[in-house]
From TrEMBL:
PANTHER family: TRANSCRIPTIONAL REGULATOR, MARR FAMILY, TRANSCRIPTIONAL REPRESSOR PROTEIN-RELATED. It comes from the Bacteria. The lineage of its organism: Bacteria, Pseudomonadati, Pseudomonadota, Betaproteobacteria, Burkholderiales. This is Winged helix-turn-helix transcriptional regulator. GO terms for molecular function: DNA binding; DNA-binding transcription factor activity. Keywords: DNA-binding, Transcription, Transcription regulation. InterPro entries: HTH_MarR-typ, MarR/SlyA-like, Tscrpt_reg_MarR-type_CS, WH-like_DNA-bd_sf, WH_DNA-bd_sf. SUPFAM superfamilies: Winged helix' DNA-binding domain (SSF46785). PROSITE patterns: HTH_MARR_1, HTH_MARR_2.
């Protein structure tokens, strides 16, 4: 519901979150560009490093993306040799995305750049405010 004197865009939760997300993504992308990665690609590589191989659908669900968007993000990683798409060992009919040694090395190269992006964001927004924002945003998909 619109607040008195404000336009719907001024009070739209979706618009505000997406606008902030675009600004934050641009900040991280600027830092990660030195390693040849975008923030979404960094997140995919990091997820694979932490959790091991996964199917496209699993990755999409874990990172809250649709499958086609995940495929568009994984394809350049595969072309660069950072991930491999192979048959799953447990079910040969299924394919999974695996982090390659080259992907692990790129992730290691990008990690200090990611830390700089984190520090820049905290300088811009405040460390306490950033922590509170993360906690609040993590609660959104769970309804609290």
């Amino acid at each position: 519901m619109a607040e008195a004197g404000l336009s719907p865009a001024d009070v739209c939760h979706c618009f505000a979150v997406r606008q902030a997300a675009r600004w934050i993504s641009q900040l991280y992308d600027q830092h990660l560009a030195e390693a040849g990665l975008r923030s979404t690609q960094y997140a995919i590589l990091g997820h694979l490093e932490r959790n091991g191989p996964a199917g496209i659908a699993q990755l999409a669900e874990a990172l809250v993306m649709d499958r086609t968007t995940m495929t568009r993000n994984v394809t350049p990683l595969e072309c660069d040799g950072l991930v491999a798409i192979v048959q799953a060992e447990a079910d040969r009919r299924r394919k999974e995305v695996r982090l390659t040694p080259r992907g692990r090395a790129r992730l290691a190269q990008a990690r200090p750049l990611w830390r700089r992006a984190q520090a820049d964001f905290e300088r811009h927004f405040g460390a306490g405010e950033a922590a509170a924002m993360r906690a609040m945003l993590r609660a959104v998909p769970h309804g609290r």
